[in-house]
Every structure is written in C-alpha cells, then in structure tokens.
Design brief:
- 2 copies of one chain form a homodimer.
- Chain A has 415 residues and is an alpha/beta fold.
- Chain A folds into 4 domains: 163 residues, Molybdenum Cofactor Biosythetic Enzyme, Chain A (3-Layer(aba) Sandwich), CATH 3.40.980.10; 47 residues, Molybdopterin biosynthesis moea protein, domain 2; 89 residues, Molybdopterin biosynthesis moea protein, domain 3 (Molybdopterin biosynthesis moeA protein, domain 3, Beta Complex); 72 residues, Beta-clip, CATH 2.40.340.10.
- Chain A is built from 7 helices and 28 strands.
- Chain A has a 6-stranded mixed β-sheet, with no helix packed on it. Chain A has a 6-stranded mixed β-sheet with strand order 16-13-17-21-20-18, sandwiched between helices. Chain A has a 5-stranded mixed beta barrel with strand order 22-25-24-26-28.
- The radius of gyration of chain A is 31 Å and the shape is elongated.
- At the A-B interface, helix 2, strand 15, helix 3, helix 5 and helix 7 of A face helix 2, strand 15, helix 3, helix 5 and helix 7 of B.
C-alpha cells in the first residue's frame, strides 16, 4: 500500500472547475402534476397562444368601445342589449353599433365587440336598454389573444427549476408531460470499524452511522436519490468490491466516515484501484473539510466520487460547499438566482480565519430590533449539535485574517 | 338561490385568526431516512448521551495530560508507548504515569488518559519511546461523554421542520422512526363551464384548467398532498355532490375557478348546503384576491374550505398569503424563522397602493452593482406570465397610499 500522500490543498474554485468533466445524468419523462421542483432538460416554447380568443376579464357587457365614448353618470350612453354570451361557448351573434351582449368573466367576446363595460358602471333597464355610465377604451376589461403567451414564444430555458406558477402556465398550454433530468442516484458508503448501523445499540467504543444519514438527507433535500449502502469493513477487498458495485448503480459515489489516517489511506488505495480512476483532489483548502477526496472513476472517468471527511461537521460543510454544486451539475440545473439561499447579518463577535484555508463558521441568526445578528456557534467538528443549533454558514475568504464584530456578513442558509 | 352577498371585506389578520379553530391533521410514523423536510409531531429528547464514551478527536497518542506539561520542541517530554487502541474496541489496557497508547480518530480513550497528543507534535522512536513536542491540556483533542448531547436533553420541539443535520443527530441517537403529522390531503375542485381538462384541446371560448395545477403544485411544494378532483359542472347538484365527496376524503378543500358572479353565487350556495357549513369569510381586503371564501365545513365545522378567485394571479396570491399559512397550521408546523423566505430590495419605480386593501405586487429581482432592485411586473390578474416572470411579492400595507422608487421593500419570495 502506498503511504498516505496529500496533494497540494486545492481551493474550492479549483475543485468546482473539475465538475464540467462529469456527464450530467440522463433524462426521464414526468407528469406535469408531479413536476414542481424538477428541472427542465430542454427549453420549452409555447405550442399555441394564451388566451386563444378575445376574452372578457370582468363581468359586464361586451360593446364597441366607441359607443361608450363620452358616457358619464350625468350623461350616460344608451345601448340595446341583444342577449348574453354563455361561458365556454362561441357567441351566437355579434355586436353591431349601438348594441351590447352581457358577458361573464372569462367568456369569449362576440364579433364586433372590443371592450367590456363593467357591471358596476352599467344599469340594465327592463326594456333591455343598457345605460352605460362610464366610457371604456378599446381593449378595456378584455384579454387579447396571445396577451399572456404568444404562439412559439420561448417560455423556459433548459435547466430551470419549475415553480408552481410555471406548472400553471404549462397546464394552460396543455403541456402535460415534461422531459427532466433523472434525479441523480447517489450511493453512500460508510467506512470505519467503529461504526454500527443506526438501529443497533453501539457497544463500548462504537458509534452509529450518523454521517451517512446526514449526507443522505442532504442529497434528498437537494433533489437526488440517496442509496444508503451500509457499513463497509475497513479492509481493501471489501472496500474495493463495494465501490465497484456502487459504480454500476450510482451516478455519484459518496464515501463517508473514516477520519483516521489508516482508514483514509485504505480508502484512497481502493479508489485508485477502480477502473478509470483518477484522483483529482486530495485535500481541499477549506476548514472544516481538509481531508476531502474528489476522484473521476468508471469508464472514461465520467463518474464522480467524493470522499467526505469523517467528522460530521466537516462532512456536512463539504457537502454544502462542494457536494451540492456537484449534485446540481449532474442534475442539469442552471445556476439559479441566489435569492433566498443567503441573508446578510451583522457578526456578533470577532472571528479569526483559518490560515491558508477558506473558513466556514456555523452561525445562528437572531433578530434584535432592526438588526439581524449572526452568532457563531463554536465547537469541535466532531460534534453534531453545533450544526443543529445553526441556521447557516459564514465564510471567511482565503487570505482574510478574520472578521470583526458588527461587520456585515453573508450567511449561507442551510436547507 | 340567495343573491350574491359580500360580507364586509376581512383583513388578512382577521382571516388568519380563524385558523386555530381547524384541527391539525393526524400523525403517521416515518422512517428516519425519509424524514427530511417533515415536521415533528411532538418534542424529541435524547435517550442516551453522545458520545457515550471518551473519544479521540484526532489521530495521536492517548496520554495523561500532566505528563506532557512543559513539553516543547526544544525540551520534549518522553513517554513509553505501551501499544495501540483498535477502532471500535475497548482498549485492552489503561495509561499509567509516563505511558502512552496510540489512538486513531474516533477511538475510545484508555482508562487513565485524558488527552491526545496529535501525531504532528510527537515522534515515535524505534524503542517505543514517544517524544512529545507540545504540551496538551486535559481534555485536548478528545470529545467528552455527553459533549454533543446529554442523555435526556430536549433536542427538538414539536412542530420543527427537520433539516439534514437534524436527521444526522437523530441517527446518532438511534432514533430510526419518527412521528410526524400526515401530509394534509388537499382536494382541488375546479368549476367553470368554460374549463376543459389540461390534456384536451380547448374549443373556441374554452380554456384549460391551469389554476388547479398551479394550486396543486403550491400544495405539493408546501408539503401537502394535492388531489386534483377535476372539473365540476356549473350546477348546484353536481357542485354539492363533489364538495360532499371531497369533505370525506380531504383535510382541506380548495375550489378553484369561477370568477363570474353567477358561478361564485352558485359555489357559495353549494358550500352553505354542506353539513356543518359556516361561511367565515366572503371577500378579503387584499388585492388581487378579493373574492375569496373561507368556510368551516363538516362535523363541528372542523374542516376548512377555501374558495379561490378565478383569475390565476389572484388565486396564486391568495394561496401564498392565506393558503400556505392554513396548510402549515393543518400540518402542525410551528412558525419558522423567516430567513430565506424574503429579501430586502430597492423598489425600481413608484407604486400606488390599493385603497382599502392590502396590495400584493409581483416583482422581479435584479442585482445591479451593490443594489438589489425589485422591479414590479405589471399586468392584469387574468394572466399567468407576469407571475412566471416574477421572483416574489411586495406588499403595500392597508392604509399606505403607495411606495416610492428607491424605497427599501421586503420581497416575499415565491417557492
């Protein structure tokens, strides 16, 4: 077995720059009703116009707008009501000069009509005379054909994550099935002779496999399909076999666990022994999270493998900072607007940075009057509870000695 | 049929004040691995301590800290290495004065040891002498029993939405199943004679049932189970029967569609005719969204029914502002921290408010240098595309005449 070697620590940007070499996952078809939150595999254009006809947007009377000109409460215009338009039907007659047809909201306008006088500004006399008390402009209280969407218009680019209103617009166009990237399948392997399954009572010196469940929940929350593969014994043949099996089944392999030098060494050897394996990153310049591995494995090195640090806080940070962008790349997601994924807050105390590494500090948010405070939640990275007590992470950039109390910082929110 | 009557328009706060009368849905058990994003039905306490034993948090040598006192590179202390501790096992001996045992990260500390000298600050001589080059304090590089979680400590309150790190902590404690509120079942009924199913080509004067799909996607995105019940004919017996069936099946009924006075009138009559029906709200002081209905229906009036306006933008806003809090109440979710659900931005133009109503304006966000702009996306509420082009809503409070260009506004993000 070769001795443990660290490459030069690589920066976050250097790690992210490797991702384009990994092929995004294939696509699948989904029903529109289940597509909220999914990502479009290709651009979508409108097959037809919406609305497809001149449509009343208020309850009232379809008229020729010019017939209403000059109308006011003091000097109304009088038109002749010739009937009404039924919902969902083609009007059985048009509107000529001096005529009106009663229309409900959403109905088709009769030929000749170009506006709707709202019911509030009209009175219907028993002799079917309509008293119009307010003039309407041509196009008033109607929706023009194509006003919502023009036929052929591009609605969405590839890689857009669909929100409820996007689903509504697609429904209006009769687009009932969509092609989306599959959810990336993420195999999660745990290593470490001290680790037992979560449904077992650990003996003295043993702990439960918490990291795998944390990583699986992150994968699920971010749109992937986690496959928890269980605990692999700390020996080369077992690890090598489990990795090879995961390679066939998954789009991305995560190895979780093993902080000790011996286990990391073994893991690295087993990865190196996979077909097509190239170790791209061994050690990243972030804190916590230094002992992270990124490898290209499988045919043409097309599949990524991420070796996570053993400490839970380190693994969680590496997943947030490096795992999530990798998953989003595999899932074909375009970089999305950052709104909602971070907030700006005032730091509640001085913080020293990590020399030579990008430093990720867990913080809790607290509002006090007009100020939103980011309070560092300290504690060794071997603990889970500081993560649980935190709302997000503050990053101290590489080369920055520290941040000062009161300084405005960007808090990257968990979730 | 009684004539259409509007109650006094009720404010958002008045509508929300009715929600406590509705019973939250029952509970179900879920596996921990699938519980991310779910809400805890009750508080959860730690059945045991984590870690359960004194644990090394670094690779190195377990020692009695006092034996290292005074050690430096120039004046090391010398200890005798008596063996090593295996991962996941109980050390087969303790550490006496002047002794050390090699330990990997995560291993149990031997009796007598109270600190770990990191491998970086020690040298192992061939005669099993350990040269300690830096003093360690008692407790250094170890995790104390209960340092992460004390036995019996309350970890989570009822109503907390579980994040990945929360799942990790529960896994560490061996809590493999959780009791959570069921996902509220939400029946979505569409009414309107002009409406056709989304997989049909609308004839002249007809439109597809987009609103139901928009509402269903909102329900799904917010943790409910949408049940799209299809299009109900605009007649009293059909509507009455469909509502009665939904009452049995669902926790919440949404009626979508029907903007015209006639349809709203009919809907109201059918609701009134349900067992236990009380109309609580008929008309809300928000724009868009005035013709909203809230009713208590079913036995003891325990089930809520929300009648949505027919215009898609109005329905979407009412769902955001009134539907989402109702769904969250039914699902037992405690009010969550607002981080991530809104951002502050500068308004790009003057905006007039709606007299006597809380006004919700769709906005698109755009970053320009250091400024995040909220740009109103105008358009009639009968259109879907302005919603699709928007990132969120700006609210102009009741009684405020308008907002000025450049003013800092809170943008409530869609999603």
């Amino acid at each position: 077995m070769p001795p443990l070697e660290f490459f030069r620590l690589q920066t976050r940007q250097e790690v992210l720059a490797f991702y384009p070499r990994f092929a995004p996952v294939g696509t699948e078809e989904v029903e529109l009703a289940g597509a909220v939150g999914r990502v479009l595999a290709g651009p979508v254009s409108a097959p037809e116009a919406v609305p497809s006809f001149l449509r009343a947007s208020m309850d009232g009377y379809a008229v020729r707008a010019r017939d209403s000109f000059g109308a006011s409460v003091g000097a109304p215009q009088y038109l002749e009501i010739k009937g009404e338009v039924a919902m969902g039907a083609v009007p059985d007659r048009g509107v000529g000069p001096g005529e009106a047809l009663r229309v409900p909201t959403g109905a088709m306008l009769p030929a000749g009509a170009d506006a709707v006088v709202m019911i509030e500004y009209a009175a219907q006399h028993p002799d079917q005379t309509l008293e119009v008390r307010r003039a309407v402009a041509p196009g008033e209280n109607v929706l023009q054909p194509g006003e919502d969407v023009r036929a052929g218009e591009q609605l969405f680019a590839a890689g857009v994550r669909l929100r409820p209103q996007d689903i509504g617009l697609l429904a209006a166009l009769g687009i009932t099935r969509l092609t989306v990237p599959r959810r990336p399948r993420v195999a999660i392997l745990s290593s470490g002779d001290e680790i037992v399954p979560i449904d077992q009572k650990p003996g003295p010196g043993q702990v439960r496999d918490a990291n795998a469940y944390l990583a699986a929940a992150q994968v699920r929350a971010w749109g992937g399909l986690p496959l928890i593969k269980g605990i692999i014994a700390d020996d080369f043949p077992a690890l090598r076999a489990a990795l090879a099996a995961a390679l066939i089944e998954a789009d991305l392999i995560l190895i979780s666990g093993g902080s000790s030098v011996g286990v990391r060494d073994l893991t690295l050897s087993a990865i190196r022994d996979l077909p097509g394996a190239v170790i791209l990153v061994h050690g990243v310049a972030i804190r916590p999270g230094k002992p992270t591995i990124l490898a290209a494995v499988g045919e043409d090195g097309a599949q990524p493998l991420l070796g996570l640090p053993g400490h839970p806080a380190s693994a969680a940070v590496v997943m947030e900072v490096l795992g999530r962008p990798l998953l989003e790349h595999l899932a074909g997601l375009k970089p999305q607007a950052p709104w909602g994924r971070s907030v700006t807050a005032a730091l509640s105390r001085n913080l020293a940075g990590a020399s030579g590494r990008e430093d990720y500090v867990r913080v809790r948010l607290r509002r006090e009057g007009d100020t939103l405070w980011a309070e560092p939640v300290l504690g060794p990275s071997g603990l889970l509870s500081p993560l649980v007590k935190s709302d997000g992470l503050v990053m101290i950039p590489l080369g920055v000695e520290g941040l000062f109390k009161g300084e405005q910082v960007v808090v990257r929110l968990f979730g």
